[in-house]
């Protein structure tokens, strides 16, 4: 776990820098200068591009992790593996771009009633999806070389900085709405170019394809696996953007804009997952190839535990300060009606980040084709629950649909993985972590009930009182939580990090 922990920590730092920029952009620029409808427009454009990009990759990012160990050879520049990873998504993009134009009128008809503004900019999905496709392809290749920090910086910080500039140009009338949409597309183009420059700087990749190196068995297995991944992508990659399409199509772009801010707040919960998952997948893939199930099981439990530790703690910090967040952001009174959406989606993020390693195990095993069944179950459940719950509960219904569908999905998935592969991400240490977080919530309730109201009423300006109260409660509860986790020895890696920090403080 050494390199996993080191790289994931560095990657997490990049993620949090990106969150800082994204926080400023989303909470102080977007909410102030963009209407809720314009916020909804940018969200639908990005999510539609993500969906098209995911399909166009033909499963390249997943298959790359699975098959890279068969090509890995530093002296031979990995036998042209990089070249294959570039050509296959290009074929996929051409195919799905054609399908996009074939079904364009159907898409237009769905959005035209409540989200007409999106229809005006629907063609921008094509270039944005193209850039997103290769942004991820090049980042995946860097991950395979165990280099995640620079690509993370480009995607998490670089794109957000450029996006911030775009919104500021729009806010101060240097560009109009057309210019803003075009510029948002270009940010992904620039990020893609930066990624490929970095990848070439490593001097470990080559465009030169070696068809003769690919054995008959490997070619046959890859083709079958690719067609299988197309089917799973159609189902699995639809889920993350399903809520956006349902909310914007059924309730309008303005409601989608309000929902977008809630989604962004909840997305902070999964920040550590982006790094730890990226750096642990190659090791899981190698362990599965070597049939070292003892190591795979240990790594799986470690990844799941640390994801759960990080995500629940971040959620705790967000939720105890949720009123402050909506008080601080411009037009917070407009966006705070989605407060319950934040709660539900945060729980979804905790479940997904903690248990998704089970899906990774399945995808690298000989039973990988069963994942199609589980993603179909997930998709059908999500679509059905959205159709039923959105008319009844609106935005909250869409969030609840996600929660129910993921619970059903992971019950089936983890039962199968435990039965067939004899690997499980779950451990008693996660139960102990849950009890600690619930105890912190109980303490926070007591503080708010008996102390917070006195702190707030001391000040003539209510916002100052709310800020001070949040700072006091957050600091106090964070220290208690860290001490309990340290003393209970839930994670050796976390304890080692705390010990190092304490040693540094003693030296100072």
The class by helix and strand makeup works out as mainly alpha
* Helix amount: over 70%
List the secondary-structure elements in sequence, H or E. Answer: HHHHHHHHHHHHHHHHHHHHHH
Q: Look at the structure and give the mean pLDDT.
A: 81
Head-to-tail CA distance between termini: 29 Å
Tell me about this structure:
- The protein is about 85% helix and about 0% strand.
- The chain has about 500 residues and is mostly helical.
- It folds into 2 domains: about 1-425, no CATH class; about 425-508, no CATH class.
- It is globular, with a radius of gyration of 23 Å.
- The mean pLDDT is about 80.
Outline the fold blueprint.
Layout lengths: L1 H32 L2 H21 L3 H12 L9 H22 L1 H8 L4 H5 L4 H20 L4 H23 L5 H25 L14 H21 L2 H13 L1 H15 L3 H19 L3 H28 L1 H7 L3 H4 L3 H25 L6 H24 L1 H26 L7 H31 L3 H27 L3 H16 L1
Helix pairs in contact: 1-8, 1-13, 2-4, 2-7, 2-11, 2-12, 3-4, 3-7, 3-10, 4-7, 7-9, 8-9, 10-18, 11-12, 11-18, 11-19, 12-17, 13-14, 13-17, 14-17, 14-20, 15-21, 17-19, 18-19, 20-21
Q: Would you summarize the structure shown here?
A:
This protein is mainly α and 508 residues long.
Task: Throw out a few tags for this protein.
single chain, 508 residues, mainly alpha, 2 domains, 22 helices, 0% strand, globular
């Amino acid at each position: 776990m050494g390199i996993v922990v080191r790289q994931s920590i560095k990657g997490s730092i990049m993620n949090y820098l990106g969150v800082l920029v994204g926080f400023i952009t989303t909470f102080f620029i977007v909410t102030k200068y963009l209407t809720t409808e314009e916020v909804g427009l940018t969200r639908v454009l990005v999510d539609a591009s993500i969906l098209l990009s995911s399909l166009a990759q033909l499963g390249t990012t997943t298959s790359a992790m699975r098959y890279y160990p068969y090509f890995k050879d530093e002296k031979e520049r990995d036998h042209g593996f990089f070249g294959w990873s570039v050509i296959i998504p290009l074929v996929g993009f051409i195919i799905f771009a054609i399908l996009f134009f074939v079904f364009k009128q159907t898409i237009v008809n769905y959005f035209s009633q409540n989200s007409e503004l999106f229809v005006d900019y629907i063609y921008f999905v094509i270039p944005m999806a193209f850039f997103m496709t290769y942004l991820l392809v090049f980042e995946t290749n860097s991950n395979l070389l165990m280099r995640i920090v620079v690509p993370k910086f480009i995607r998490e910080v670089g794109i957000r900085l450029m996006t911030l500039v775009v919104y500021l140009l729009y806010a101060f009338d240097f560009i109009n709405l057309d210019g803003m949409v075009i510029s948002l597309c270009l940010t992904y183009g620039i990020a893609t170019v930066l990624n490929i420059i970095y990848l070439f700087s490593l001097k470990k990749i080559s465009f030169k394809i070696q068809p003769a190196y690919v054995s008959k068995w490997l070619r046959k297995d890859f083709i079958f696996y690719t067609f299988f991944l197309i089917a799973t992508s159609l189902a699995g990659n639809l889920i993350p953007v399903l809520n956006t399409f349902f909310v914007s199509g059924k309730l309008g772009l303005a409601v989608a804009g309000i929902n977008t801010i809630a989604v962004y707040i909840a997305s902070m919960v999964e920040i550590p997952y982006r790094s730890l998952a990226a750096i642990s997948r190659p090791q899981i893939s190698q362990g599965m190839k070597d049939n070292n199930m003892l190591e795979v099981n240990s790594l799986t439990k470690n990844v799941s535990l640390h994801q759960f530790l990080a995500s629940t703690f971040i959620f705790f910090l967000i939720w105890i300060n949720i009123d402050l967040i909506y008080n601080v952001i411009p037009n917070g009174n407009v966006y705070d009606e989605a407060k319950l959406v934040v709660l539900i989606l945060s729980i979804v993020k905790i479940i997904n980040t903690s248990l998704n390693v089970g899906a990774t195990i399945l995808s690298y095993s000989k039973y990988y084709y069963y994942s199609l069944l589980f993603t179909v179950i997930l998709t059908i459940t999500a679509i059905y629950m959205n159709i039923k719950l959105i008319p009844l509960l609106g935005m909250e219904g869409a969030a609840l649909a996600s929660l129910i569908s993921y619970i059903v999905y992971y019950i089936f998935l983890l039962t199968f993985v435990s039965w067939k592969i004899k690997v499980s991400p779950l451990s008693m240490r996660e139960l102990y972590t849950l009890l600690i977080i619930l105890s912190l919530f109980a303490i926070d309730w007591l503080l708010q009930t008996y102390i917070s109201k006195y702190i707030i009423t001391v000040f003539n300006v209510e916002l100052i009182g709310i800020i001070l109260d949040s700072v006091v409660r957050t600091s106090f509860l964070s220290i208690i939580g860290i001490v309990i986790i340290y003393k209970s020895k839930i994670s050796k890696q976390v304890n080692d990090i705390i010990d190092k920090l304490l040693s540094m403080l003693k030296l100072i």
